[in-house]
């Protein structure tokens, strides 16, 4: 999953960045409204963390732009203002949730997971397809009774495929979810990780649909 962080406080931004990267999320971090709007135009994000007080405007400017352009990406606002009116304004403007600073990074991570589930229409945090079970909180995967050890990128790819169980996920969508701006993407990276996943989960678990993409759990939906 690719996340945009809009936060001008270097310490908070850096803390969020590191916590998200530890969870295998791909993160882009910008510090003002203008860069946020540029980033949103150029990339497809699956989650936005938005500070309210920014040097060249407010997080509400970014939120309004997103919703005016019919972008329904889940947005969590961060507000330093312990003021009900800011929270109400944010939620009414289309934000999905908020956190008041200072907050614990664990809480931020839990809220991201909850909003991600909600945006996928999924109530149960544990994903299961066939005999493969993925726990996003513990970042653990099991096949039947056996634990399966996956690398961070393998885990991120499997998570995306299992969330979209029964649907085709393109190579580009998988790439978007893996990398922030600063990382080079090798053209065969996804294929290499899919190969690794098949070795660990069985050849048939991930289907390749030539020229379209990949799918798990066809007919299970
Ligand atoms: Ca700020």
Explain what this protein looks like in three dimensions.
The protein is an alpha/beta fold. The protein folds into 2 domains: about 1-120, Response regulator (Rossmann fold, 3-Layer(aba) Sandwich); about 125-215, Arc Repressor Mutant, subunit A (Orthogonal Bundle), CATH 1.10.10. About 40% of the residues lie in helices and about 25% in strands. It has 8 helices and 13 strands. It has helices spanning about 10-20, 35-40, 60-70, 85-90, 105-120, 150-165, 170-180, 190-200, and strands at about 1-5, 25-30, 45-50, 55, 55-60, 75-80, 95-100, 125-130, 130-135, 140-145, 145-150, 205-210, 215. It has a 5-stranded parallel sheet, with helices on both faces. A 4-stranded antiparallel sheet has the order 8-9-10-11, with helices on one face. Strands 4-5 form a two-stranded antiparallel sheet. Helix 6 packs across helix 8. The protein is elongated, with a radius of gyration of 18 Å. The protein starts with a strand and ends in a 5-residue tail after the last strand. Calcium ion binds next to strand 4.
**Main sheet summary:** 5 strands, parallel
What helical percentage do the residues reach? Answer: 40-55%
CATH topology of the largest domain: Rossmann fold
Globally, the shape reads: elongated
Poorly predicted parts: none
Structural class of the helices, strands and pairings? alpha/beta
Q: Per CATH, which architecture of the largest domain?
A: 3-Layer(aba) Sandwich
How many strands appear in the DSSP assignment? 13
